[in-house]
């Protein structure tokens, strides 16, 4: 890529304020800035504080990335002070308020952008922030959508929308064949939720669908070799420019930047590495369920017992938000001591990419959030899939049935449909069985490991010079040079 020419470009990136959305946007910022473009990434004070390590590292690197901190009007929106991220919501009932509240950033953002020289050339905005369409229109710049999930999921929801299935099917648990897919896949509406379908979300839903259809292109954290037929079909159906630019996590090359992803780590990564060093290659199971999943105490205890019964070394992440007095008591009154010789419990945010990239890791029990899956694919780690909600059931099918690199735990009912006192979605036997099947040294396990390793090779190649994702970023920059704000290009030599 011609670095001098791209220096005329100024991208404005707007992630939804949720951990899983911010992480790949920061990586996207880096991928553009490394090619000489200027990037402004919009954030808020609480999120900027979380990203401090990342922001400091970018400053040191001299990359032209600017983090734009806009005040988030919590009080005005009806949110508790400092509630600037989905993982900080006091309860689910506030979710819509938070989504609506991002809209209040429109004025301050417009003012900021109007004052910038060179003027912003192109906007890349999260699907969940449809108000950004008005900003882009006002400032006359092209707007691209950033899709966080797999292309497979985006394609499935697109097909369901196009065929009017969401409106037609009223039973959340009726299995539905997704039309037009190259292979047949069935999901219930609960497992393949469309965009903001719940009652009360109608306005946001129609704005999001509108902003999606009017965007000029789509940037995705996936790669051509991972889901080629789905990317192709989605491109054909939408007629849009699609740029698959992942796995974005591969931008983090050294341990310090791997450890700085997402949130402040609750444990010094050197300690985790020390722990992993003493383990045999591919012997450790890593269990972690992303930033938003809130596992009920009884289920957590069941997971712990399953890990204990598996006799396999493990690292298990329990989030702060999941640590009830009951869970803490259970951990400290016996469990941690019983497993101390082979289990490490991390309480809080874990340096996941550091862990997954270590040769001692042999499997990953995951909620199937797309960032986690891309991180596991990049590291060549096979998975136990345990979806909770959103895109996760669809991602599970991709991992287990299409790519053949996962063992399903067998959960069919999404988490939001479970009650506090429902029996655990998977019990200790299910967990023990899945762990021994995944870590098994027999033929089935070997085949799975081989496929995971091959896929990791493809992921790495996609991101190297001449690789598909590298080329797609170059095409995206070229597109912006051709379609971006013309006055930017005229003013500079
Ligand atoms: C991220 O860090 C903040 C501040 O320490 C914490 O409140 C929040 O729960 C963390 N999020 C996750 C998903 O761990």
Task: Give a verbal description of the structure.
The protein has about 500 residues and is an alpha/beta fold. It folds into 2 domains: about 270 residues, 3-Layer(aba) Sandwich (Rossmann fold); about 180 residues, Glycogen Phosphorylase B (Rossmann fold, 3-Layer(aba) Sandwich), CATH 3.40.50. It is built from 23 helices and 15 strands. The strands form 3 sheets. It has a 7-stranded parallel beta sheet, with helices on both faces. It has a 6-stranded parallel beta sheet with strand order 12-11-10-13-14-15, with helices on both faces. A two-stranded antiparallel sheet has the order 6-7. Strand 11, helix 16 and strand 12 form a beta-alpha-beta unit. Helix 9 runs parallel beside helix 12. The longest helix is centred in the C-terminal third of the chain and has 21 residues. The chain is globular, with a radius of gyration of 22 Å. About 45% of the residues are buried. The structure holds 2-acetamido-2-deoxy-beta-D-glucopyranose. 2-acetamido-2-deoxy-beta-D-glucopyranose binds next to loops. The site of 2-acetamido-2-deoxy-beta-D-glucopyranose (NAG) has 11 residues, from loops.
